[in-house]
Amino acid sequence: MNVDPPGGYKKAAAKGEFIKDAAREQTVPQKLPRMDLKTMMLPLLLLLSTFDSVSMMTAPRGCGSDLLPVYFNLCDLDAVWGIVLEAIAAVGIVITVILIVVLLGITPFILDKRKKACVPIQLLFLTGTLGIFGLTFAFIIKFDERTCPTRLFLWGVLFTICFSCLLTHVWRLLRLVRTGEGPTICNMISLVLILTLVQVIIAIEYLVLTIVRFRNFCSYENKDFVMLLIYVMFLMALTFILSIFTFCGHYKKWKKHGAHIFVTMFFSIAIWVVWIVMFVRGNAALNRSPEWDDPTLSIALVANGWVFILLYMLPELRHITCPAKSEDDPQDSVAPNRHTGGMKGLDNQVFFLEEPSRGFSGNFDDNVPSPSYRSHSPINHNVYSAPQDFTIPRPHTRSSYLPTPLLQDPYLNYQNRQTTF
């Protein structure tokens, strides 16, 4: 049995220490590569994130590669709503421009001055409708710092212009159906400008407060956007209620214009109720709140613009050029002449001077009794029958003949002179 010398133990111990030292030497250099790996992976991760962002901004099908991402909805074939709405809005812009040109062209040929007085209001209305169709593109383009002020300011102002024109037209019709006379052009234009100025002040104040609160960044919530339009909703409700009273009056031809405004306001209110419910509650309930907000507002703009064109402007252009009919005015709209008492032909109070004793007082009061020959055929019913031998009387210088100072007529005392011949 061989027994290792004590030196072997030392060798083993030395060998063990050598292994520990080697392990230490191996552990120390293992930490350095890990640090280098992290530092090397950081630029790689940044590069990959850059590639991911670039891949996310890749132009969709139908858009150019150099187009900014905010304009993708205008040409994205996958999101068809943007292309459809911009096409409908473009057609609306063209039709509105044509209507403006037509209205300016037919203005000199409008014979009724009362109809011509409403042309400036209708031009302002078409201008507001043109802006509504143009504002649709601000909601098709994605939300950013440039489109935010445009949305907040122009939505309320443009609709205020349109509804102010309709309200002014209703006010004019309320006077026309009752008296036949409307307000002046200056009064109507002033009313439209004053009503629009109120919404302009509200929008500017809201924009200033919003930008200051968010530190030069424009942003809004759905409820805030709707609260900004409370004044516009008030104008809508007032116009709708007053348009109902345009059906009460003696002048029938103006009631047609009131019917146009009534139908227009009815459909406009329906559109506003739908888009407000969807914008505030519906999209969030369907978990489509960020994605469907802009399409909802864009559809509301286009729909309301076409309601203005089809239900109000086109019928107004048709009736504004039609001549007035006799049955449109009330039968008692033309009062008889107070100087003649409504008499026709020879049935006139001038012939009351058949006797010299009555004279001529110059008073054409209706209480003056009518002579016996006052009828549709006064000659046949005259109590004074003409003689068989009719001779033309000659003026005489007799003292018994005293003509009135106002009527120096030699025929007044003809009957008296016949008895003296």
CATH hierarchy, class of one domain: Mainly Alpha
| CATH domain fold name of one domain | Rhopdopsin 7-helix transmembrane proteins
**What general form does the structure show?**
elongated
CATH architecture of one domain: Up-down Bundle
What structural class do helix, strand and pairing data support?
mainly alpha
Q: How large, in whole angstroms, is the Cα Rg?
A: 46 Å
Task: Give the fraction of residues assigned to helices.
Answer: 55-70%
Can you count the beta strands? 0
- How many H/I helices? 11
Low-pLDDT segments: 1-16, 27-38, 40-56, 331-384
GO molecular function: G protein-coupled receptor activity; protein kinase activator activity
Pfam families: 7tm_3 (PF00003)
Membrane topology: Multi-pass membrane protein
Family: Belongs to the G-protein coupled receptor 3 family.
What can you tell me about this protein's structure?
- It is a multi-pass membrane protein.
- The structure is a single chain.
- By secondary structure, the chain is an all-alpha fold.
- The chain has a domain of 257 residues: Rhodopsin 7-helix transmembrane proteins (Rhopdopsin 7-helix transmembrane proteins, Up-down Bundle), CATH 1.20.1070.
- The chain has 11 helices and no strands.
- Helix 5 runs parallel beside helix 8 and helix 8 packs antiparallel against helix 9.
- The chain is elongated, with a radius of gyration of 46 Å.
- 21% of the residues are buried.
Task: Name its key features.
421 residues; mainly alpha; Rhopdopsin 7-helix transmembrane proteins; 11 helices; disordered N terminus
